[in-house]
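hey m, so remember when u said the tokens were messed up on ur end? i reran from scratch. heres the input so u can diff it against urs
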Amino acid sequence: MIYWRSESKRLARERGQDAMNHQRFLFATVTAVSLGSISIGPLAAQPYPNRTVTIVNPLPAGGATDVICRIIAAKLQAMFGQSFIIENRTGAAGSIAVESVARAACDTAPVW
């Protein structure tokens, strides 16, 4: 990488090409790739979350994890401007909470 210019000139001489044409080709290629990636960026960016997010807590309400979830939800709500709901689904060592997240509709945004 350090000897890029000298190597490109050497390669150009070995192939019988002008070194300046080789460098122009490399510059044009790098410019085209970078401009292509810049123009795609705004199209790919979508705001998230764009609807209410449900945070599923597998432990009972009023415990330490419930308090922590509510503090985190308040911070996330302030950051993203969307509603974050805490849903406590206790029982079966967390299997009920996992099942509710797994069976959630595809257009919802549950977090476990």
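this time it looks ok to me. The chain has two domains: 4-44, 53-111. if urs says something different then somethings off w ur setup not the seq
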